[in-house]
Amino acid sequence: MKSLLLVLAFCFELANAFYLPGVAPTPYKKGDSIPLLVNHITPSINPEDSSAKTYLYSYDYNFPRFHFCQHPDGPEKQSESLGSVIFGDRIFNSPYELKMLENKTCITLCSDIYSKSDAAFVNRNIRAGFKHNWLIDGLPAARRMLDEQTQTTFYNSGFHIGFVDDENTPHLYNHHDIIVEYHKRKEDEYRVVGVIVNPKSINQGSDVSCAPQEENPVTLSQEGETGVTFTYSVYFVESPTVWATRWDKYLHVYDPKIQWFSLVNFSIIVVALSIIMSHILIRTLKNDIQKYNEINLDDDVIDEMGWKLVYGDVFRPPKNPMLLSVLVGSGLQLLLMALSTCGFALFGLLSPSNRGSLATLMFILYAVFGSVGSFTSAYIYKFFQGEDWKTNMILSPFLVPGALFAFFIFFNFFLIFANSSGAVPIGTMFVIVLVWFIISIPLSCVGSLLGFRRQVVKVPVKVNQIPRQIPKQSWYLKTSNMALIAGIFPFGAIAIEMYFIFNSLWFNRIYYMFGFLFFCFVLMIITTLLVTLLLTYYTLCNENYKWQWRSFFVGAGISIYVFLHALILSKFRLGGLTSVVLYVGYSFVISLVIGLLCGSIGFLGVMVFVLRIYSQIKVD
Ligand SMILES: *[C@@H]1O[C@H](CO)[C@@H](O)[C@H](O)[C@H]1NC(C)=O
């Protein structure tokens, strides 16, 4: 047990040990200027005050109501990858001037006056725990934290724009101590290996001095105008950390032992259960097949029971074969995208300093796997004896991606309405659509054509002319109840990970536990497959031959739990309509996507299973 843990931990370490080759270190000489870039201002959860409202959308650093200092020549947008734009990065240059090895103390940056309404706006956001996200040499500016359980220090990226004191009054941080950690590689060659910012709130009088004045922080009055002067200091500190491991302090895993432990425990249970289940299933099936093939010689015995009875109907095409085949194809497309993204990340091919590379990769893989999705969709549609192949070919690349895009646009309206920087600009929307039409649709058409060309697997038993009556089924064999039962198991596999994914989605945390994720994902696939197979086997034994939609819905049962989990376990109070719409909406879309993914796993697994077992029995 312990050694297994160690091996797993080692693999995880190994995956973290090497970074993307494309990211080369930047060498600096003494006096070289190091640009400080400012990213969007993001929300966070305020752990001290549970009554504080949480907002789920970010703002531009340059949003005028904040009055933060801007570059003298006006803010200039930095180029970003498609994925990082989609995921909300808005990076601009800043007026802060950093020169390698040149300490500066108390530089005045700018002064501004906050009106009543702007003060109220900033105070609201201080209470909501909004955070700055600065970037220096690709590293996020962080605060140094202590993990009390393991007594280790780590860097928590971002820092708050202000703080709330004991009397519940918000104060704005207007002075920043920037501490740049450098590593000396050789004579006059330095590299940045860590950035810490300690923000302070200092009410500057007529003479600007940056000595901390605990008793006199900046308070933005909501009754009158308040003038604020922004200052900063820069310190360069030598560090033994080498460039290659500079991210380690940022990628801090809270209590990794417990996480691995629960995961390994869970996976042992899953593996044990699946071995037992498949053993029972295989034995029962063998018995069944043997019995059926013996009985077949003796025509008089009709009182036989079980799945053999429905052999004449089991390959009867389901209702709505078009929709089912398109959904299964789209689910497979999502599955392949998720698996391969995880795979890339697992082998360290996605460095955290390559901002947005994960999102870009996901988007491109999704577009490329459209071909496989359409192929499957066409193949299954043909298997269902569908004839309207043109509609199938059009629906495959449009139905699910189109629905996702429609959701995306809908949420975007709310973001625009809330003045959030998260709203994706029209140009990016245009690029997404363009990529879709140039990469995905042609590939997907090729996939469809290949799918239709391909010889469909031969059905082992002929379909009877007259459909068989389905006997009354017990309550627990209803599709909806079965989906409810089945969903719990795969959900158990990913429940731990959902928390972290949601956190990184909403609060701009770096997600890096791809080892865990990959492992959980595989467990989820296995459990979905097994549970769906088992339940479908039961319904076939109860002479219910309609397995096609059922297996899809039973597999998709996990989505109910993902959605409920997101709604019930959100430990924060949402502020404003936009936050509520975004939270519920995104939870809904995510659970739909997971449902689609697991539904297609369920369907494809059962399809193979049904083809296999019915080819084993002899029928005249
Ligand atoms: C800059 O400040 C840091 C921290 O106070 C100090 O350790 C370092 O020696 C200073 N560097 C120079 C070049 O003065």
Written account of the structure:
- The protein is of the alpha+beta class and 620 residues long.
- It has two domains: 20-249, no CATH class; 256-275 and 320-468 and 475-614, no CATH class.
- The protein is 48% helix and 15% strand.
- The chain contains 14 helices and 16 strands.
- It has helices at 2-17, 82-86, 116-127, 256-295, 321-346, 357-368, 370-383, 389-417, 426-453, 479-507, 514-541, 548-555, 558-568, 576-616; strands at residues 33-38, 53-54, 92-99, 104-114, 131-132, 134-136, 139-140, 142-147, 152-157, 159-160, 162-164, 170-172, 175-186, 189-200, 226-238, 573-574.
- The strands form six sheets. Strands 3-1-6-7 form a four-stranded antiparallel β-sheet, with no helix packed on it. It has a four-stranded mixed β-sheet with strand order 4-15-13-14. Strands 2-16 form a two-stranded parallel sheet.
- A hairpin with a 4-residue loop joins strand 8 and strand 9.
- It is elongated and about 100 Å long.
- Residues 1-22 have low confidence and may be disordered.
- The chain binds 2-acetamido-2-deoxy-beta-D-glucopyranose.
